[in-house]
Amino acid sequence: MTAKDGPQDRYKGVWLIFFMLGLGTLLPWNFFMTATQYFSTRLSDAQNTTAVDRLSEVNGTGINLPRTYLQAKFNNFMTLCAMLPLLIFTCLNSFLHQRIPQQVRILGSLVVIGLVFLMTAVLVKIPMEPLPFFIVTMVKIILINSFGAILQGSLFGLAGLLPASYTAPIMSGQGLAGTFAALAMICAIATGSPLEDSAFGYFITACVVILLAIGSYIVLPRLDFFRYYSMKDKTEYRVHEKHAELETKMDLIKKDEPNGVEKNKLNTVPLHNPNQKPSVVSIFKKIWVMALSVCFVFTVTIGVFPSITAEVDSYIAGETEWKKYFIPVACFLMFNVSDWLGRSLTAFCLWPGMNSRLLPFMVALRVVFIPLFMLCNLRSHVYLPTIFQHDGWYIGFMILFSVSNGYLASLCMCFGPKLPGHEAETAGAIMAFFLSLGLALGAIFSFLFRALV
């Protein structure tokens, strides 16, 4: 039976569900990434005031209290507590998917992330001292990224049952998650309401998106298009596997043992002989340039975003409205929109090629963004001067930084798994590991880069 004989994706229902699941995968974490003003305010050491009072002071009177250690290091610890669990659980997911049913992994992860965000929304209304609030926030970040890694790995496995084009909506949803979060933050600022109310609505929105993702996943198995492809894939795989096993058993019955062993070897080595599984080392030797390249791309990106980039002040804002919109717009919104633009470019252009020396050179060239951002108009410089004061420098660097991140990372992830047959899956797992490794290394180096400023 061909694909044409199967049911159609009516009203693009399956496509939209995968888009919503992709959005639900990264939106919670992106909300944490963009909520720097809220978290920074809650970490103030101002005594004899409640959390609500401190939020109102910043929003209503513009009082700038001295930055504490927790405020100064929040972005670094946030990045570290996010990327290390992401790396660890990306590796663990390769074992979990064999032992834990798909529904448990996906629904369980969405439920946990939803509960964590509900707790975050409730804590907006509850006064807490800075240190306990900081610890609770870090624990929440660890939980979100741990279950997010399981959710993401399971989702791409689920999409693998369908035609290749159904991976695209997951990528689209993930790419737009950051933009959606940044826009939500800007809208919260634009309302002019107390920061407490804005933050509460901000996190409740994340809970609604997660509920929509849960509902979408529950509906998915009921759609004929999804049922057809998922059942078809499993049936074909099992029939093929049973057929190879049957051939081996028949050979052992019909012939004496030595010949049977030899025949078994001839028939089953290509697919099912455990001693002939693709070697991880041999596959890594074929894709090591792409693996190290994607690792380096994200090491540079997470090394400065947001730990350095979110610490830049506007030079031209003065006391205008641009001052409070500068980081949400010039940092977070600009990064997410430009990063998505870079990802989208790979749908039209795959230059330079996989074997071109120009690709790793372009990846290595991105290291220049580290000193460029460190020399921008940061709030506090200890060792380095401020060279690029004007906002135009910062915005220009941010556009090039984020477009190159999206384009080069997508290019590497596209070329990496392009190996024949059974090697492709292992190659994809290796690429996913090195992507997570890059995120973790970036989180670690962010402490060093921040200390050098």
Keywords:
globular; uridine transmembrane transporter activity; Growth Hormone, Chain: A; single chain; transmembrane helix; 453 residues; 16 helices; mainly alpha; 73% helix; Equilibrative nucleoside transporter 1 isoform X2
Brief characterization of the structure:
With 453 residues, the protein is an all-alpha fold.
Descriptive overview:
It comes from Alligator sinensis. One of its GO terms (molecular function) is uridine transmembrane transporter activity. One of its GO terms (cellular component) is basolateral plasma membrane. Its main location: membrane. It is found in: Basolateral cell membrane. With 453 residues, this protein is mainly α. It folds into three domains: 213 residues, Growth Hormone, Chain: A, CATH 1.20.1250.20; 40 residues; 176 residues, Growth Hormone, Chain: A, CATH 1.20.1250. Helices cover 73% and strands 0% of the residues. The protein has 16 helices and no strands. It is globular and about 60 Å long. The relative contact order is 0.13. About 11% of the residues have low confidence.
Rough shape?
A: globular
| Topology order in helix (H) and strand (E) letters | HHHHHHHHHHHHHHHH
What structural category do the secondary elements indicate?
A: mainly alpha
Uncertain runs with pLDDT below 50, 5 residues or more?
47-62, 236-241, 243-272
Average of pLDDT? 78
CATH superfamily of the largest domain: MFS general substrate transporter like domains
How many strands? 0
Strand fraction equals: under 5%
Largest pleated sheet: none
CATH class of the largest domain: Mainly Alpha
Number of helices: 16
Q: Name the helicity range.
A: over 70%
Count the domains: 3
The CATH topology of the largest domain is what? Growth Hormone, Chain: A
Proper CATH architecture of the largest domain = Up-down Bundle
- Name the assembly state: single chain
**Global Rg:** 25 Å
Distance between the termini: 63 Å
